[in-house]
Amino acid sequence: MSAPMAKGAALHATLEYLDSRGDGMRARVLAALEDGERSQVQSVAPTDEVPYGLLVSLWNAADAELRATAPAWMEEAGGFSITARGAQMYGGILRKNNPHEFLTQSVSLFQLFYHPGDMQVVDEGVGRAVLRLDGFDAATPLFCRRQTGGLTAALAIAGGDDPVVRHVRCALEGDAFCEWELRWKVPRASGEAMAKS
Fold this sequence. Notes:
By secondary structure, the protein is α+β, with helices and mostly antiparallel strands.
């Protein structure tokens, strides 16, 4: 398997989230990185491909700064990434009539930010779905938490009311793969139509 890579946009979204917290958070997190990593982070363009390990280093430095005072920061950062940069760059992929259309489209949102691997629907029903991550080494629970926040935001943008996302299986905890259970409220008429189709 090839080494995991990430799009520079994922790195930029993390930096923008740190900026949104104010109080010099971005500068403090960058100062915690090794010199080589810091210069690489500061020179990456959103469209560049970067080693996933560089993104993990940035996340770890941010976690050291934030976990005590903002324990859900990574879920927030995942949601921020989708609502800000994701919606700006990939609005056509995210803005759908309903989450079903978003989840079953041919273009993979995951593959626009990371490779190798993909996140695929393995179970689906009215107002619910299960996504499985296959072929990508997450390396850190921070990734899983980021996906949880990002998926919650994506479901809301795709028209899902009151979305709830739970990380129900984790390869980093001994499971064969990572899975997320997604639920959202469906208007009664829409739910009856989907159930008949």
